[in-house]
Amino acid sequence: MNRNVKKVVGLCLGTAALALAPAAWGASSAALAAPVPAANSANSATPGEGGAWPVVLRPAVKVAHASQAGMLATTWAGPRAVAVGAHGVVLLSDDQGKHWRQAASVPLDATLTGVSFVDDKEGWAVGQAGVVLHSRDGGERWEVQRSTPDQDRPLFAVHFFDRANGVAVGLWSLVLTTSDGGQHWTSRQLEAPAGAKRADLNLFGLFSGPGNALYAAAEKGYVLHSADKGQSWHYLATGYAGSFWTGAALPDGALLVGGLRGALYRSADAGQSWTRIDTGSTASITGLVRTGGERGVLAVGQDGLTLRSVDDGATFQASYRHDRLPLNAVLPNAGFAPPLMSARGPVPAEVQ
Question: In this protein, which residues make up the domain named Photosynthesis system II assembly factor Ycf48/Hcf136-like (predicted)?
Answer without folding.
Answer: 104-148, 154-291
